[in-house]
Amino acid sequence: MSITLVVADDQAMVRQGFSALLAAQPDLSVLGDAADGIEAVELCRRVHPDVVLMDVRMPRRDGLWAAARILGTRGADEVQQPADGVAGRTKVLMLTTFDIDDYVYEALRIGASGFLLKDAPADELVRAVRVVAAGEALLAPSITRRLIREVTGRRTRPRSDRAIEALTPREREVLDLVADGKSNQEIATDLFVAEQTVKTHVSSVLTKLALRDRAQAVVFAYENGLK
Fold this sequence. Notes:
The chain has 227 residues and is of the alpha/beta class. Helices cover 49% and strands 13% of the residues. It is built from 11 helices and 6 strands. It has helices at residues 12-23, 37-47, 63-71, 102-110, 122-133, 144-152, 161-165, 169-179, 184-191, 195-209, 214-223, and strands spanning 3-8, 28-34, 51-55, 91-96, 114-117, 138-139. Strands 2-1-3-4-5-6 form a 6-stranded parallel beta sheet, with helices on both faces. β4, α4 and β5 form a beta-alpha-beta unit. α9 packs across α10. The chain starts with a strand and ends with a helix.
């Protein structure tokens, strides 16, 4: 089955370019595009895509507002309600122009599955869509640790001691490696275990900490002083 997509960006040439690139892939299908956050939410309500490529900065309503609305989470200034039938299925992959962007951090807290620089190579964009559609998180290697460290240094919350104590020593170890931006395969190599074992540990960590995905696990680790 094809992975269905919506592309949201205020620049027409960017929308058209991304849409053409993605639609050319045999396993990807672009259902439509949007020029701002309001259009993105309305379109997602109609077509229920698997993945939304969401620009951070757009007119009327930006990508953060739209992501919170689609995912049914708390936005920057209000509690959003999920677009009908969208939350729980649609994943949001944020696109940004800048290496260090506070909006990206907020997007991860909202529940976006990751972020990617707009100038990333075409094959990296295609891979990112597939990774996010598969339920993984995609954090651009060039900015992940630097971004999280910079922003969480200014925005911290109390440690979730009870939740952390529920993790086994192995799960703590896996969380630490996830926070380093490592993939399941890389973690499996580091720990000398099967990749499926790592997937099981990651799933358990997310469940115990009530986190949506790996992106939020990274944020949790830094916010709670585990990194």
